[in-house]
Design brief:
The chain has 13 helices and 22 strands. By secondary structure, it is of the alpha/beta class. Helix 11 links the parallel strand 15 and strand 16.
Amino acid sequence: MRALVIGAGKVGVNVARTLTGDGHDVVVVDNDERRAADLQPELDALVVHGNGASPRLLAEVNAGDADLVAAVTEVDEVNVIAALASRQLGARTTVARVRDPDFFGPDETFAHDVLGIDLVIDPDRATASDIARALVLPGSVAVEHFGDDRIVLAEVIVTPDSPVSGVPLGERERPFPAYIVGISRGEETMLTRPDLVPQPGDHLLVTAPRECVGKAIAHLCGRVEEVRDCVIFGAGSIGMHLARLLEDTKVRVKMFERDEQRARYVAERLRRTTVLHEEGISREAQEAAGVDEADAFVACAGDDRANLLAALYAKRLGADMCLAVVSREEFTPLVDALPIDAAYSPRLITSEAILRFVHARVVRGIYLTRSGFEVIELEAEPGAPIVGKVVGETHGMLSGKRVGAVLRGGEVLMPPQRIEIQAGDRVLMLGVEGSLAEAEPLFVSR
């Protein structure tokens, strides 16, 4: 496939690296001459300096011949114009990252049906949705749905009360049909093995049928508390979207916002959220807002440093679950070093949405974890090499990967039961970053 990526920021570079790693031909365009020059030796792609919204430049880089044009700069207008111009030149698929909801309204109908943009990505709205799913499922810090919402992948933290703490995975009790596919311990990510012993503080990636996931998580955690009170740090786009989603649940929401005008604007548009005009980082401000008694604290302001600091203070005060939005990759080691329960990356969420377009034939879902795991849902075509093989007995075909669940019709099949893969099965797999690209051909008919 030939792909054109407009914008060499964090999202653009991540998408370009993933595409080149899969063997695709990639051209990257960025208007910062120094950044383009610095990236050229780092990327296995052609990096061009120029204005990605210029029809002349797009013609010069043959945008009309591209199978995919992903416009992911920091400027909405540039992304929309680049996608429109590329479509007019003949690009097969166009994607635009757009944060401002005033562009297209509540959905993508106008962008898709009238303008011809195949996918509009709002990373802030998507990030808020991911956080909300985790908050409403007690015991989880991240949640993703697969298999037409029949399969749930949840990230849970091992507590000292957990029945799996200190017990080899091969010896653990299985009162519910849940399967542990991966473990994150600090900066280390591991696929599961029978002899692996979870420790308090480890993050487990668990698959389970939707109807059993709540009980399975409660069992693995050892204790769960439903989120009733949530404090949000930052009333920006992510914070406002998150508050709106939580207002439709039983969660009581308070929000810190240091800018008076923004605080007033958000307060006028939220029904049940208490908006406090306060910086929200200091111990005094957090204590006054009851952070010490909050079930959850979400730091999602526009400053990664402030998010990490606010979440750290909230955790020390006694907030039960502390989440932070971290956009910059260089802050990832800090997340692992601090006692923060989980971090969310709009960059990864945007990359996931784009990669689903790249692997459209047999891929039904993709999820990238901040800790370095890739999760992919693949549908087996008739005659594909994987058909007829038994999970756990693939003789190296799925080396370095774990099958977490199989959806067959409306039934969810869970390891470690014996599962022979049939045509039409949708298989959920997990592997370390970069390991799943070789799995896709196994599900394609010859």
